[in-house]
Design goal:
By secondary structure, the protein is mainly beta. It has 1 helix and 15 strands. It has one domain: UDP N-Acetylglucosamine Acyltransferase, domain 1 (3 Solenoid). Strand 14 and strand 15 form a beta hairpin. The protein is globular, with a radius of gyration of 16 Å. The N and C termini lie far apart (44 Å).
Length: 159
């Protein structure tokens, strides 16, 4: 029902309520006051956990087994990757090498993820971090960091 109907409903009160109701039955854990925006994709979603007062942005792509804490804001068009192409062998084409093992992304509490952020597999976003718009997140940073750029870098600490 989510993939073919609720995903495409407008970003109004009715659409948000229908998406939330669907996700409560799909996700492993779905907190209170969760906002799943229009176009958000998450495969089957059975392993996703999302805490209270958190949201998944418009057209975001979230892999299974992602953990999202409480009070997380996510902008539109965010992509969280769980696998990558295998590239270790040079004697055969990369397209024939398969992919890496899936890695889990964990987003702790009170995080703000801006528009168009791409996360490489296995990221751990610590509590209180801000990830700036259009950032390509390739490594982990300490709590309360402001992160931006491509490649990512620490802009400053919020402490």
């Amino acid at each position: 029902m989510y993939k073919y109907f609720a995903k495409h409903l407008p970003s109004n009160k009715f659409g948000k309520k229908v998406r939330y109701t669907c996700c409560k039955h799909i996700f492993k854990k779905c907190g209170k006051n969760v906002n799943i925006e229009k176009g958000a994709s998450f495969g089957y979603g059975f392993g996703i956990e999302i805490g209270d007062n958190s949201g998944i942005g418009i057209n975001a792509v979230i892999p299974d087994k992602t953990i999202i804490g409480n009070d997380v804001m996510m902008g539109p068009n965010c992509f969280i990757l769980s696998i990558n192409h295998e590239t270790s062998r040079t004697e055969i084409p990369m397209r024939l090498q398969g992919s890496t093992s899936p890695k889990q992304t964990i987003i702790e509490d009170d995080v703000w993820i801006g528009r168009n952020v791409t996360m490489t597999p296995g990221r751990h976003i610590a509590k209180g971090c801000i990830v700036a718009a259009c950032c390509v997140l390739t490594k982990d940073f300490p709590e309360y960091s402001i992160i931006g750029g491509n490649p990512d870098k620490l802009i400053r600490s919020r402490l």
